[in-house]
């Protein structure tokens, strides 16, 4: 939205001679409408960045609108929600999520990370071990953050490469498919690389067999 507003100021119809100004105004108006629909309408129709990581077991998403959440939980038979957002008691959507989860008998646990996917590594480690244990009990888990891109992307990269032994490039390509952009967020990949030894050690101590470690430093260069 900020980008479109900047374009609108730069491409003000007053800066064009007739008949161009009406065409420019129409294009700007269309872009604004599309952005508004994507930001405020689409999340009420489709669950934000919802995806299946492991069939009938592990799912990912952004924050799902409260009008859609019961349907998503029911249709996918979710047993546990793992949220990677910080708790803010004054946020209405968090209160609604807690209420819906409680009424549906779904566990809701929180391992808070910062918006760019960095933060206390204990949250990543705790979430990884928790999800591993839940899946080991044949429970279905939904992992989400706000956008479903940075924090969820970082978590899934660790889980897919370290626990599921997926190829690092494939896991990174999935991050990109969910709109992760290393230029927009230059902090996440270095953070994942720097914290990798601590995560590997903690998961190994938890009894998780770790395969080949991903080479994170060159992922942005060799992937999408």
Automatic annotation (TrEMBL):
Keywords assigned: Membrane, Transmembrane, Transmembrane helix
SUPFAM superfamilies in the record: (Phosphotyrosine protein) phosphatases II
PROSITE patterns registered for this protein in UniProt: TYR_PHOSPHATASE_1 (PS00383), TYR_PHOSPHATASE_2 (PS50056)
Spans through the membrane: 20-41
Originating species: OM182 bacterium
Protein name: Tyrosine specific protein phosphatases domain-containing protein
Record domain Tyrosine specific protein phosphatases: where: 122-179
């Amino acid at each position: 939205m900020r980008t479109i507003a900047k374009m609108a100021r730069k491409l003000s119809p007053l800066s064009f001679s007739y008949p161009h100004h009406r065409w420019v105004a129409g294009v700007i108006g269309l872009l604004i409408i599309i952005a508004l629909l994507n930001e405020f309408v689409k999340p009420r129709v489709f669950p934000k960045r919802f995806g299946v990581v492991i069939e009938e077991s592990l799912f990912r998403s952004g924050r799902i609108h409260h009008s859609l959440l019961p349907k998503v939980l029911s249709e996918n038979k979710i047993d546990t929600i793992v949220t990677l957002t910080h708790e803010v008691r004054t946020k209405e959507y968090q209160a609604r999520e807690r209420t819906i989860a409680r009424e549906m008998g779904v566990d809701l646990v929180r391992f808070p990370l910062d918006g760019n996917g960095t933060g206390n590594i204990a949250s990543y480690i705790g979430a990884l071990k928790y999800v591993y244990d839940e899946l080991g009990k044949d429970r279905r888990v939904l992992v989400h953050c706000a956008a479903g891109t940075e924090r969820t992307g970082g978590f899934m990269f660790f889980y897919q490469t370290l626990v599921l032994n997926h190829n690092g490039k494939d896991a990174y390509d999935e991050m990109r498919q969910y709109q992760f952009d290393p230029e927009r967020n230059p902090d996440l990949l270095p953070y994942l690389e720097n914290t990798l030894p601590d995560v590997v050690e903690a998961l190994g101590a938890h009894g998780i067999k770790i395969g080949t470690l991903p080479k994170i430093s060159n992922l942005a260069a060799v992937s999408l």
